[in-house]
Give the backbone structure.
Amino acid sequence: MRISQMLFVTLREDPAEAEIPSHKLLLRAGYIRRIGSGIYAYLPLMWRVLKKVSQIVREEMDATGAQECLLPQLQPADLWRESGRWDTYTQTEGIMFALTDRRDTELGLGPTHEEVITTIAKDMIRSYRQLPIHLYQIQTKFRDEIRPRFGLMRGREFIMKDGYSFHSSEESLKKTYQDMDQAYRNMLRRSGLQFRAVDADSGAIGGSGSQEFMVLAEAGEDEVLYTEDGQYAANLEKAVSIPADTETSPFATFEKRETPGTDTIEKLCKFLKCSPTQVVKNVLYQAVYDSGITVLVLVSIRGDQDVNQVKLLNELTKLAGNYQAKTILFLTVPDAEAQQKWAAKSLPLGYMAPDVADDYIADSKEVNSKFLRLVDRTAVDLTNFVTGSNESGYHVVGANWDKEFPLPSLAVDVRKAKKGDRAVHNPEQTLQTARGIEVGHIFQLGTKYSQTMGATYTNEQGEEMPLVMGCYGVGVSRLAQSAVEQSYDKDGIIWPVAIAPYHVIISIPNISDAQQVEVAEKLYAELNQSGIETLLDDRDERAGVKFKDADLIGIPYRIVPGRSLKSGKVEVVERATHKSQEILIEQVNSTLKQWIEAAIK
Ligand code: ATP
Ligand code: MG
């Protein structure tokens, strides 16, 4: 392609709308253009990158025996009602764009395709003989994200590869899951990314596992905890660890103490000269179940620990049946306004004890009349501990479970693992932390969708069984941007060769120099012909401008037919290192071919 014929507009200044380097660079280099909040046009250079990423993804998927298809983006609401997700997706969580057609039929724009694929499986899979089967597609997804940001990282319209597999057994699912794990590693390695596969939260579905693939970068929205020995890595949401040891309590007898102005653990420990590991803190949450019932949840946890809200949500979802519900709509720390809706009198916030009385909850049909009391495992074994007294300005010290306070019957792990904690697999290893961008997620779904939607098959014994399912996603557009986030310098983007829009750019220093133009044209034709994707910067611009642009758009190799022409050579500059060398014109093609092949391997 000749740059003179392209829609080629680069910006010298960082656009105000962009916060992270990759977003700034993609805008400045003319790869993407913002059309609306979370809505971007993929301009020709970007589209080439996206096609390359898609092709790598496609090749790795095909190699596992999965088959490509294309599913509709317009999805009937009824399908989502069948799975029970319509209300949560369109209203509660609100991530799904919903619309009504001229016949008054409700439809949604696909944020994901479990419903569509399960309905196909329900119709078409009859027998175990048809299993396993794995279909995937590469397609635009729509999600009405609350906070679209960072360009393609979190768009409201983005490209995803999503695959769904169907099995007659858990073992068969596990096999495909393993194949996907390998396929994902291959995709990311081939795309030139540094990544980590981490244990991920499978939500309330439980299931036997899920893994996320994280591209390591400061701008990542996720936190990853891992050990140096490479044996453990998990999303913070899911991570487990051994907490610091408890220090022995200095309080041997139970008594109430005046502790003015100590509504935080830090202030309290300073005042009482004790360790936060000797404190039981009581944290209040408010869960709204889909039955419409609000439940106030009191979590007692050791003072130096924090609650992991994802783990808590999973625990509370397991209890949905107790509240005539299937799932939880919201889980929040109730602010003053929320408390007003249900509190019969003002709560002793900052001074609550594990036994705070149920009569703080006003009588109401929508609110469960008792606190749901949970104790985190870190607080179970504490003795002679400090905790609230249910009276502002006072705490108790020297307290014990089943003496002064009943131990909540539900002991759970809802604590947040953190940097520095000891690892479960080997306590000599401590957890380290890194930031990551989730580019892929593989998931053993089990029978959640097949059961609710009635997708069954007949097994060898002639029994009707629900299909066992897995699902596997890759954010193609997010992956492409994360490559930039991992690879740039002060001059611009440094694309990994495998996904660069072009391999080579020939920058003609001076287009009124006939010899320069002639050599450039010759190489341009020759390289393209031999499969080396080449751009020709034939604009009537100063050499400096062209070199800057070539660096900014990040093409791996730049050829400059300049001064060295008199010795039959051109200058070839490697973008990543700025290393330059002079190569005989007739050897340019074979040399570049070698370099590119070596880089793409
Ligand atoms: P996140 O936690 O980042 O919102 P998710 O867990 O909801 O993502 P999945 O449903 O697992 O996402 O989707 C599969 C993949 O699609 C993700 O791993 C991610 O790479 C990509 N993806 C999800 N949401 C977006 C988005 N809004 N913009 C771009 N890519 C996205
Ligand atoms: Mg995910």
Notes: The chain has three domains: 43-240+433-483, 255-412, 502-599. The first strand starts at residue 32 and ends at 36. The CA atoms of residues 312 and 414 lie 5 Å apart.
